[in-house]
Amino acid sequence: MTGRRVLQVLGSSAGGVARHVEQVAAALAAAGDRVVVAGPSGLADVVAPGRGVPDGVRFAPVEIADRPHASDLRAVARIAALARDADAVHAHGLRAGALTVLAVRSRPGRRARVVVTLHNLPVGGRAIRAVSAVLGRVVARGADVVLGVSGDLVALAAAQGARVAERALVPAPGRPASAADAAATRAALGLAADADLVVTVARLAPQKGLDTLVAAAARASRDRPALVWLVAGDGPLHDELAARVAEAGAPVRLLGRRADVADLMAAADVVASAAVWEGQPLAVQEALALGAAVVATDAGGTREVTAEAAVLVPVGDADALGTAVAGVLADDARRADLRAAARVRAAELPTLPDVLDQLRVVYTA
User: Fold this and answer.
1) What pLDDT digit, counting tens, does each position of 142-168 carry?
2) pLDDT of residue 50
3) What is the 3-state secondary structure (H, E, C) of 285-352?
4) Could you give the CA distance from residue 114 to residue 112 in angstroms, rounded to a whole number?
């Protein structure tokens, strides 16, 4: 793959997709490829100096809106111009993928190979689902390869007519291992020595099942009155979530965005996820690598990440989530078994070299 010209395209992103593109772009450039990352100007820091991105990566602004917009025609033209000399164009997300397919397919003669990674399952009302279905067919029938971050997305792309549909490999970007003492981390948070600490790392957005989380915390606290459930992350639902926590009297503390996520998860008795849907959840991968006892909803590709190294409960079932968390907190032996299984499972998950091996194949005609 050395010396290939690769265009990475992404639309509006709340973090996970941008982190993945940053990781992939840096790895491709380190392997000798010339990489252009194209996306909304607000995401230029994906390839900002000082973030470990090699000199072989540059950023090109393309304003891709998060819903149909008059600017789509300009975005298609801009992507087409950037793709003119590319060997492979790799778009991330449904809208970016559809616009990329239209841009590259519209050019006569030699064209770049088109790969689209689907990172999210379309959710919302009837109108949103209808538009997503149209975009999905454009991507499936126009891309050379469609990658899905979970099995359900792969199956959806195949059903919509994709010639080649495979599961994408999305390893969590490396974080520094926790160097803090768990007791010191707990003390800095003002926790009592006997507190049961549950940590969730999530963007405060509808996909993360935050209403389920609050109800689950209230349920778990009936069995574990010393429970403290910390949520690290920010997002548009902060105020709504804070109001829900106050109304329910749940033992949930909103920490906002944190730089010490690894320390928090390493200090936790349980790391929990209440997500409605996930691809290959990065926070769960990080928790496994830290040897955390994980309790999560069986959402999207979560089971594909955890295998048997976590307690999984049905999506949206707050009682089941709260009961499972309380059960793990009450059972020291089970918690120890989950921690050991987490480290074993983390060692089995795909790595960045695995990603490069996959892209070497899908970028080749």
Assistant:
1) 999 999 999 999 999 999 999 999 999
2) 53
3) HHHHHCCCCEEEECCCCHHHHHCCCCEEECCCCHHHHHHHHHHHHHCHHHHHHHHHHHHHHHHHCCCH
4) 6
Query: What is the reported pTM?
Result: 0.89
Tell me how far apart the alpha carbons of residues 341 and 139 are, in angstroms, rounded to a whole number.
Answer: 38
9-23 in b/e form (b: 16+ CB < 10 A) is bbbbbeebbbebbbb
Q: How many CB atoms lie within 10 A of CB 65?
A: 15
Average pLDDT (93-114) is 91
- The CA–CA distances, whole Å, from 296 to 11, 90, 311 equal 28, 31, 6
Q: How far apart are CA 75 and CA 73, in angstroms?
A: 5
Given a cut of 90, whether residue 16 has pLDDT beyond it is: no
Query: How is 206-251 classified by DSSP, letter by letter?
Result: GGG-HHHHHHHHHHHHHH-TTEEEEEEB--TTHHHHHHHHHHHT--
Quick one: pLDDT band at residue 1, thresholds 50, 70, 90? Answer: very low
The pLDDT tens digits of the residues spanning 270-298 come to 999 999 999 999 999 999 999 999 999 99
N- to C-terminal Cα separation, the chain: 12
Cα 149 to the center of its chain, rounded Å: 9
Count how many residues are written for the chain.
365
What's the pLDDT band for 330 if we cut at 50, 70, 90? very high
Element (H, E) at 129: helix 126-142
H/E run at residue 81: helix 72-83
